[in-house]
Design a protein that fits this description.
Uracil-DNA Glycosylase, subunit E; alpha/beta; 6-stranded mixed beta sheet
């Protein structure tokens, strides 16, 4: 074979060496995949439309991807107590003990909450206990507004399925998330109502037991709240 001239023009490769060029435009289907997906709160709203039982709701929550908060939790925390009880107790979010056991209010603050309700004769047979947030926030931090928004469709469906006669909101996060109001200190013990389906449910905000463990002098307020709760139950 004759030698090519040394000044013969080099043929450039038709494709860039090493794969796709960084300036290559994505295919239409790639752009579709990159489109912003529905926010978790919308995904939760879509899911609960198909839920008609507590078991279904428990399963949906257990399988739901809520982002960082569910990624860092051992498991979802659903409820404990009697779903046929007149009183539904809604706290804020699970802590370390709840994350381990998979039940709400089982740690030190939960034990205090049980004693508070026991002071007027209420226990797991006469209470149904859950949280606004079903996963332990990383490091026990407060849930973010986005995480609360994601959880609202679940807790609203939860209340609808239980259909309690009375709701007790435990702590400032649950009070704010479900009523839209702020200031647990000034609103504690003041009856309000929550719209559950087509029914207005009498609702009592109380201090979180974790707060009472830090401020034991305020346990007297908790006792007054329980007296108010007992009076409401007796009037049903």
């Amino acid at each position: 074979m004759p030698n090519l001239p040394t000044n013969a023009p080099r043929r450039l490769p038709t494709k860039p060496v090493g794969g796709k060029s960084s300036t290559a435009k994505p295919k239409p289907e790639s752009r579709a995949k990159q489109a912003v997906s529905a926010p978790p709160s919308q995904a939760a709203s879509n899911l609960v439309k198909k839920v008609s039982t507590l078991d279904q709701l428990r399963e949906v929550i257990a399988e739901f991807d809520a982002g960082e908060i569910s990624d860092h939790a051992r498991q979802s925390v659903f409820s404990r107590g009697n779903p046929d009880a007149d009183v539904m107790v809604i706290g804020e979010a699970p802590g370390r003990d709840e994350d381990i056991q998979g039940k709400p209010f089982v740690g030190r603050s939960g034990q205090l909450l049980d004693r508070i309700f026991a002071s007027i004769g209420l226990n797991e047979d006469s209470l149904y206990i859950t949280n606004v947030i079903n996963w332990r926030p990383p490091g026990n931090r407060n849930p973010t507004p986005e995480e609360i928004a994601t959880s609202l469709p679940f807790i609203h469906k939860h209340m609808e399925l239980v259909a309690p006669s009375v709701i007790v909101l435990v702590g400032g996060v649950s009070f704010s998330a479900l009523t839209g109001m702020t200031g647990i200190m000034k609103n504690r013990g003041q009856w309000t109502s929550l719209k559950v389906g087509e029914t207005d449910i009498p609702t009592l905000p109380i201090y979180h037991p974790a707060f009472l463990l830090r401020q034991p002098a305020l346990k007297k307020d908790a006792w007054l709240d329980m007296l108010s709760l007992r009076s409401k139950i007796e009037s049903l």
